[in-house]
């Protein structure tokens, strides 16, 4: 929980202010009551409050130097005096007038506070955080309970590293709005900067409690806190090692001093860097490298010259390779070191150039370094900030150079690890390519090993997480043709290598099919045909992947739908819905909903193979909203067939559809599709109407009409 406010007097004053607001609201409610007794009681309470206020004011004046001989012309009569000479209506009018005046003053103050907030925001954008704080403070003087001014000022305090003040402002913001996400977010950042790791995580957990949809932000924040806590502990451990006189720790410091000494020749620097790379072989070594300014090594002119040169002598080539090996050692499994390395402008600018430098050894070690950094989530985010288009262009030129060079680059990975995330296989590769384009040799038949193909295709799937790169790949006819080559698209031998390759192809296609373009429409028929063949594969992961690709590819082409319907896709999907797991079932019902929407033959086959719609009715009871919406859509299409609605007499279909049409599902497709299905059911078979009337269905359908306008 947040710490107590630092200014106890201000806190007490604020609480008194809030109590007075509540008391005034209660009194006004009583004065407006239709019950004379309540009105009488409210008048008495108001009189009491005014006397107390007057006594408090006189007591305060007794401690001032005000001239008491001046006649006070602003004294207001008590309610009893008003009551004696005027009606209670006049008293209420006076109170209402006072309330209006207060509301007008607040409105003016709010306008002024908003104007000052905008001035503060402008100063913040320009980097003048001191001026921004001044403007936000002036706004708070106008309106003390404006939450945005507290959070904006807290953000400015964070920029100036005044973390305690930022925390205090966040606490004030939470008093104005206890569910303010921004306040908890900024307070978490401030606690993190102060190395209050427990308090920081508590703030982030409150964010998730308030809005569960912020789970990704929560994970990022908690991960940042964990990395920072690890960094602090690593550095404390490294200090202890040095203080204890550990020989390995001291040797790293000595080697760094030697490398940074000016006036040495290139071979001397090369030897020192290679020795340092061997010494930085554990977490403590990596930490000492970082804390002793190891990443400033590019400040040495000979080293920077070898790293950035357009043309290198043999000695400079060796120095550049040694530097890349050192960075690999320093960054392996160390996200803080990866961040520092990739944050250097010279490094981020030069790495793509090294890939096209023409020197095979430098290219290999550059690829290894970039791939190493891509293994961690933070490393991938840092790499994604680079100019991916530039990287792709350079890699295209590189892999087209010679088959031998391309094969050499692909021989870098020593293993391929595939783990399950649903059916999607995230590919991790300790030494290999990160960004590859369809012109990679796997698409040109240069690589004969299936492991290499799986790696290349898996890397392409990873690349598709970046929207611009995915859009470019999805428009590439070369890419789709490569996915459909015979030895990748047909059912292969059931070996682990073949399965990995097929999974990588399917993962790539799933990502590419998030796009919509003419190229996908052109390839939808062959893609669907390949996937239909894979539905008989013995590996369940491949069956799931093929079903997923079908669920996305069919939406692009009615012709593709007709082809797979002829191939028996409806019967296969219904079978999957009876026996398959959650993910496969979600893909299967999506595929059926697409097929029945554009194919009358598909509707007939659903009626034929799903007797009395038992499968679809069961799906309507699912907790998965996507599956419920697709099941309702599929059912509504099939109800267009003569006799389909009659087959559902004596079933609980009306109850199921009403429950979904009038439910509170977050996806409006559930209510919309269920309402459409219910309307078609009763239109096609009026004998369902009595059950609808009995369940108050007409009122539910009427309330669901708002979901039907878009359809």
Topology:
Blueprint: H1 8-31, H2 36-61, H3 79-85, H4 88-125, H5 129-142, H6 147-159, H7 163-176, H8 181-193, H9 197-210, H10 215-243, H11 247-260, H12 266-279, H13 283-291, H14 301-308, H15 314-331, H16 335-342, H17 345-355, H18 360-373, H19 377-384, H20 388-399, H21 403-410, E1 417-418, E2 427-428, H22 450-463, H23 467-474, H24 477-483, H25 486-489, H26 496-512, H27 518-534, H28 540-553, H29 558-566, H30 569-579, H31 582-598, H32 600-609, H33 614-619, H34 625-638, H35 653-661, H36 668-684, H37 689-694, H38 697-703
Antiparallel strand pairs: 1-2
Helix pairs in contact: 1-2, 4-5, 4-6, 5-6, 6-7, 6-8, 7-8, 8-9, 9-10, 10-13, 11-12, 11-13, 12-15, 14-15, 15-18, 16-19, 22-26, 26-28, 27-28, 27-29, 28-31, 30-31, 31-32, 31-34, 34-36, 35-36
Molecular structure report:
Keywords: Repeat, TPR repeat. This is TTC12 protein. One of its GO terms (biological process) is sperm axoneme assembly. TPR repeats lie at residues 181-214. With 711 residues, the chain is an all-alpha fold. Among the domains are: 102-229, Tetratricopeptide repeat domain (Serine Threonine Protein Phosphatase 5, Tetratricopeptide repeat), CATH 1.25.40; 252-386, Alpha Horseshoe (Leucine-rich Repeat Variant); 412-515, no CATH class; 640-710, no CATH class. The protein has 38 helices and two strands. It has helices at 8-31, 36-61, 79-85, 88-125, 129-142, 147-159, 163-176, 181-193, 197-210, 215-243, 247-260, 266-279, 283-291, 301-308, 314-331, 335-342, 345-355, 360-373, 377-384, 388-399, 403-410, 450-463, 467-474, 477-483, 486-489, 496-512, 518-534, 540-553, 558-566, 569-579, 582-598, 600-609, 614-619, 625-638, 653-661, 668-684, 689-694, 697-703; strands at 417-418, 427-428. The two termini are 48 Å apart.
